[in-house]
Amino acid sequence: MVVGSPLSYKKQYEKEDSKNDKPLANLLVVDDDPDIAHVLKQGFLKNGFLVSAFTDPEEALKNFQSNSKDYCLMLSDIRMPGMSGIRLASRVKQINPDVKVVLMTSFEINDNEFSKVFPSTQVDGFVQKPVSIENLTNKILDTIGETKRRLNEQQ
Amino acid sequence: MMRTNAESSDIESVMEWFEERIEDGENSILVYPNLQTFRQIYTQYVKDQLLAGEEQKEKGNDDDYDYSHNNNRREGQLLMPRIILIATFYDTVNAVKHSLSAVGVDVQSHIDDGSLLIVDAFDGYYPNTNGMNKLVVSLSERARKEGRVGVSVISNMGFFFLYDGDGTASELISYEASLVPKIDGGNVRGFNCYHARDYDNLVDSQKNELLTQGQKKSLEITLSAYDVPLQV
After folding, report:
1. Cβ-based contacts of B97 with chain A (< 8 Å)
2. Rounded CA separation A10/B95 (Å)
3. Nearest-Cα residue of chain B relative to residue A42
């Protein structure tokens, strides 16, 4: 399920953005909890990102397949029915290995388990919920720093 | 597989299935359409079971108590309430506690008196399923020692869909195969609960294997348009 239509949202954002600065980055946000997806979308919008938010990982993947070059980073919940964040991350990296992936969870996973759990999935960051939008924004900016620099150089 | 829909009026029929169709010693499979329905089911079941236990304690006798499915029953013996284990996966342990409190269950007192246990299914199944097996065996033994009605295990199977790779389904099928449809004299009722979106990731032959070639009792709760999208 799309939390707001990404396309209409993009148009809306671009309209608002025409008066302001260029977006910091284009984010794909996935969380099966609609409230969390909504809060993240609104928070990142206020902080200057372009955001497409989904509650259905399958829909998020379809969107990513069509727009993989547009995204800098995917922020996804881990435990989601139908397709976990780990599976989604794996698919996203297969399509575009340059896209950064940050996973988040409300559950505690210690470092040892984490390293055993994700040996084959290149995850660029991990966030324990609850987390403030401010901290998440800083985490995302840190994570995309290199990608952003590369994109700027290409332009 | 039995099918019912998730209209609120039909939660009663789901409860009947839990309480009357599944007997002690049986392992069953439940497919739920969305988390909201699953929460409704486990909160109602826990409430029914634990409130029945409280009433029983207050009465101090078993004259009117229905032990028809209780094979631990001994003549004239007053049995303690059932132990309920919830192995949650998509909700945190605290979220489950919150959902139970919201329907009037005194969560902490039932945890304290040993009638209720809520664990993260990840901890039970990772790094292997022995953790869950050992926990259930220990609860079964404790139930017998304490003279309890039995044990109900409501386990969310989402863990088995967490990781990528072809081995995932085989690990799940192998685990389900280890849970025989019925153990004579057993005091555990097992409810392995699948989100429909996870279950639908399995092919028909795998679903059939999960049901131990149709021997395991199962219930699929459907919605006319399951997991109705919520526009934020």
Report:
1. none
2. 34
3. B232
C-beta atoms surrounding B22 within 10 Å = 20
- Give the tens place of pLDDT for each residue, B24-71: 999 999 999 999 999 999 999 999 998 876 666 666 554 554 544 444
Closest to B145 (Cα-Cα) out of B212, B211, B72: B72
What pTM did the predictor assign? 0.84
Q: Give the closest-approach CA distance of A148 to chain B in angstroms.
A: 29
Give which of B190, B189, B147 is closest to B57, Cα–Cα: B147
For residue B127, the chain A residue with the least C-alpha distance is: A113
d(CA A24, CA A143): 13
B163·A87 Cβ contact <8 A: yes
- Residues B162, B164, B169, B170: is their CA dihedral positive or negative? negative
| Residues A106/A110/A111/A115 CA torsion (nearest 10 deg) | -80
CA distance B136 to B133: 5
Query: What confidence tens digit (pLDDT) does each residue in A56-101 have?
Result: 999 999 999 999 999 999 999 999 999 999 899 999 999 999 999 9
Specify the residue for token string 């332009």: A155
